[in-house]
Sequence to fold (339 residues):
Amino acid sequence: MRNLLLGLLALLTPLIVVAAQAPAAPDAPPVVTASGKRAELSLGDAIILGVIEGVTEFLPVSSTGHLIIADKLLGLDSEEPLRGPDGQMLWHRKPKEGRPGEPLTIKLAASTYVVVIQVGAIAAVVLLYWSRLVSMLMGLFGRDPAGRRLLVNVLIAFVPAALIGFLANEWISEYLFSIGTVIFALVAGALLMFYAEYWYGKQVIAGTRVEREELSPMGAAGVGLLQCAALWPGTSRSMMTIVGGYFAGLGPQRAAEFSFILGFVTLSAASVYKGWKGGAAMIEVFGWQNVIIGGLVATVTAAICVRFLVTWLMRYGLAMFAWYRLVLALVLMLYFYVL
Fold:
C-alpha cells in the first residue's frame, strides 16, 4: 500500500509542477469586484483547499464544514457582484421577465469549487477500491452475486439524499452555509458519535454483537436516511454513514468501506450536478489551472486518509474524532463570536 501511494505521488507531482508553472491563458478576462479587487483563486488557496478536502472528506469531521471555514478565512466568501474588463456586471443567471437575475460572486464560484474539488476524493476511492467497483459493475450484468448485492445496497442508500439534495439544494446553499450552522452540526455530530461508540462497545462487552459481512436492503435504507442529515453543513456524510453502518450491524472496517463506496456514488452525482449548475461561473472567475491543482492535491491526501481511517477505526473507534469536533466547535465559537 505504501508503494502504491508513493507511486501515485510520483505520478501527480510533475502534473502539479507543470500546472503551477503554466502561464494563464492570454485571453482570460480580468474579473474584478465592484470595488476593483481582482477575483482569483491563488495557488496557495488551491493547495490549502485541496488538502482540506482530501483530509476531511472521508474522516468523520465534515469536509463541507471545514471548507466553509477555509473560504471565510481565505476571503472567498465575498458576495460583492463581479464585473468584467468592460465594467459590466457579470451574471450567473441573467434577469428574465418577472424574475430578478443572480449576479456572479466570488462566493458562488467558491461554493461550486468546494463541491467540484470532490472529484479528487472520488479518484482516491477508485484507486483504493477498484476491485469492489469492478465487482459492482460485474454484478450489474449478473456475473457477480456479491457485487450485485453491494450495488443494490449502494443505490438504496444513495436515493434518499440525492432526492432531498436535489429538491433542497438552493435552500441549503442560501440558509445553511454559515459558521453558526457548522458549529451546531459539529457538536451534534460529536454527541451522536459518542452514543454510537457507547452502544457498540456495550454490545461487544456483553457478547451480543453479531456483525454482518454486508448490509441488508433495510440496513442500507437506514444508512441512506442518516446520510440525508449530512446535507446540513458540518454534519459529515462519512460520519453519518459509518454510524449508520454500526447501527445496521457492520463492524468498523465494513462500515467505513461501505461509506467510502457510497461516497463515490454520492460525490460523483453532486460534483456533476454542481459542475453543470455553476461550473462555467467557477471557471470564469478562477480559471482552470488552480482548480485542477486543488483536485490533484485532494486525490493524494484523500487516498492517505482513507487507509488511515480504516486502521484507526479498527483499533480505537470514533471517539477521537468526536473530541476533535467539540474542540473545533469551541475554537470557532470563540474566534467568530467572542473574541
